[in-house]
Amino acid sequence: MAEHNPHDMDGDRRLDLKEVARVQGPVEAEVIKNFLESEGIACFFKGLMLQTIYPFSADGLGEIKIFVPEKDLELAKKLLENREFGPAPD
After folding, report:
1. Residue 61 CB coordination number (10 Å)
2. Domains in the chain and their CATH numbers?
3. Contact, 7 vs 70, CB < 8 A?
């Protein structure tokens, strides 16, 4: 049996993820994730663990990065800019 790779969507191609946004808390991250998923764009978080241990945010410690598949990056940036969730990273 083949080992499951979380970066492999269909077993044949690798899912290359690109950062689309950074936020300062899980609530804002979930709002953005739900919005993008409602537009058909899959989202993944990085950096959520620290807030589950220490429920505060200071000097970027609570920062959560939001990633989308590379093929959806430009559309996701445009959608977020139009919805005013904050600037997309460079």
Report:
1. 12
2. 17-83 (3.30.70.1530)
3. no
